[in-house]
Amino acid sequence: MFPMMHNFICIVLLFGCSNSVVESAPFLTSLVSAASTCVDEMTVNSDGKSIGTNLEKRVIRLFDEAASLPLSLSREDGNIEVRTKFEGQLYMSFAEAKVVKNQPPNVFRGFLQNFNKHFSDATPMIKEVRHLEHDGNIREGIKAFMGFPPPISDRVMVHWKYLRLDRKKDEHLIILSEEGNEKLLENHLSKEERKKYVLARTFLCAFWIKPAWNSNKNEIIGSNIKYVYSGDVGGSIPQQIQRWIGPRTALDSVKSVIVFGKKTATKE
Predict the structure, then answer these.
(1) Over the stretch 80-124, which tens digit does the pLDDT of each residue have?
(2) What is the distance between the alpha carbons of residues 116 and 141, in angstroms, rounded to a whole number?
(3) What is the three-class DSSP state of 72?
(4) Under a CB-based contact definition with an 8 Å cutoff, are residues 81 and 69 in contact?
(5) How distant is the alpha carbon of residue 198 from its chain centre?
(6) What is the rounded CA–CA span in Å between residue 96 and residue 227?
(7) 3-class secondary-structure state, position 80
(8) Percentage helix, strand, coil, to 5, in the chain?
(9) Quick one: average pLDDT of 173-202?
(10) Cα–chain-centroid distance for residue 267?
(11) Strand 198-199 vs strand 155-168: parallel, antiparallel, or unpaired?
(12) What whole-number percentage of the chain has pLDDT above 90?
C-alpha cells in the first residue's frame, strides 16, 4: 500500500467515523484495534525517519572533525588515510580514499544496493550479513556475524541500515546504526546466539561516496570514499589490541569498496 494512502486510512479510522456508524461494541473494538495498529506503524516509521536524518547529520559532522585527529595509517602516498580515537571505551575510526581514479560514484551503486552480500564477501572479518526485516522504505534491519582469531570470541551485531542513493547528484551514503534496535534484538537474536556470540554494538558506521573532480571542477575523474565506525566490540578486548585491529579493519573496509568499483568499472 502506498504510504500516503496508508496514513490517510489510519486518520480516517481514528477520526472519520460518526456515532451512527459505530452501532455495536464488537465493531468499535475492532475499529479501535485497527486504528491503534495504524498509529503504531506511523509512529515507528516516523521514528525511523527521524533517526536516519539525525544519523546523517552526525556522519557529516564527524567527518568534518576527523581531519584534526592523528594519523594511524597511510597508504598510496597519502591517498588513503586512517585516523582513530578513543573516548573512554568508545572506539572510533575514520578512513578516506581521497581520489579513486577512473571509478565514478555510480560504479559503487551495486555494492551499496546489495551491501549485505558484497560487504561480507569482500571483508574477511565479516562472516555473514543477514536480512531481518524492513521498516517501510526507510530502513532495513540486519544482523552481522564477525569472526575473530582465538582466543577472542566471535561477535554478532544487530542494527538498522539506511541507504541514501543519490543523496545529491552522483553522491551516495549508507549508514548502519543500532539506535532504536530494541525490537530487532527482541525478535531476531535467539537465546542460542546470545550464548554463542558476544554482542557488539555499532553506534554508527557509514560509507560516503562523492565525486572527485578535476582541477577545473568541471569533470568527474573518480570518487572520494569516506568511512566511519563508532562502536563497542563488547567483551574485554584490551584497547591495545583494538588499536592494532581497528585501523586495519577501517583500511580493509575502504579497500573492499574500491576493489568492487574497479571490477564494475572494468566491466563497463
Answers:
(1) 999 988 777 678 899 999 999 999 999 999 999 999 999 888 777
(2) 11
(3) strand
(4) no
(5) 20
(6) 6
(7) strand
(8) 45, 35, 25
(9) 95
(10) 27
(11) parallel
(12) 56
| Of the candidates 184, 221, 224, 223, the residue with the CA atom closest to the CA atom of residue 201 | 184
The CA distance from 183 to 188, in Å, is 8
Residues present in the chain in total: 268
pLDDT, tens digit, 9 for 90 and up, residues 228-259: 998 887 766 666 667 777 788 889 889 989 99
* The residue type at 168: K
Which DSSP state fits 76? T
Average pLDDT over residues 183-188: 96
Query: Look-up: residue for cell 569498496?
Result: 257
Q: 235: which 3 cell numbers?
A: 567483551
**Cβ neighbours, 10 Å, residue 89:** 10
Treating both helix axes as pointing N-terminal to C-terminal, what angle do 239-267 and 115-122 enclose, rounded to 10 degrees?
Answer: 110
Name residues whose C-beta falls within 8 Å of residue 143's C-beta, 6 or more positions apart in sequence: 129, 130, 132, 156, 157, 158, 184, 188, 189
Q: Contact 165/113 with Cβ under 8 angstroms?
A: yes
Task: Look up the pTM and report it.
Answer: 0.79
Helix ranges restricted to H, the chain:
3-15, 25-66, 109-113, 115-122, 182-188, 191-196, 239-267
Cell of 148: 575473530
